[in-house]
From TrEMBL:
UniProt protein name: Integrase catalytic domain-containing protein
Domain annotation Integrase catalytic: ranges: 1-107
Annotated InterPro entries: Integrase_cat-core, RNaseH-like_sf, RNaseH_sf, Transposase-Integrase, Transposase_IS30-like, Transposase_IS30_CS
Source organism of the structure: Pseudonocardia zijingensis
Lineage: Bacteria, Bacillati, Actinomycetota, Actinomycetes, Pseudonocardiales
Superkingdom, taxonomy of origin: Bacteria
Assigned protein family: Belongs to the transposase IS30 family.
General function of this protein: Required for the transposition of the insertion element.
Amino acid sequence: MLSGLAQRLPEHLRRSLAWDCGIEMRHHARFTVATGCPVFFCDPHSPWQRGSNENTNGLLRQYFPKTSADFRAYTQADLDTVAHELNGRPRKTLGWKNPAQALDELLVATTS
């Protein structure tokens, strides 16, 4: 699934992927072969290597507290709603644009 989504992005937006050391990317070699996008893993206990990820995790905890986050209790529609809200939330690191706006600008710039 991630491979298919990544391939929808312009090539310059998928030059590499930095990932945490979780089991989610145990098949990272397959992902790299399917997409041509190398995967790099952050060092354990080094949150500064993945600042945007850590920030996003904090935002997600507002919706899914660590103590009660059993994701089996959520539907795909629930998760999509949270994703839509977070992608519409302005971010300082993006010059107060929201992630959806920033991505749209990048995609428009690559087709011009």
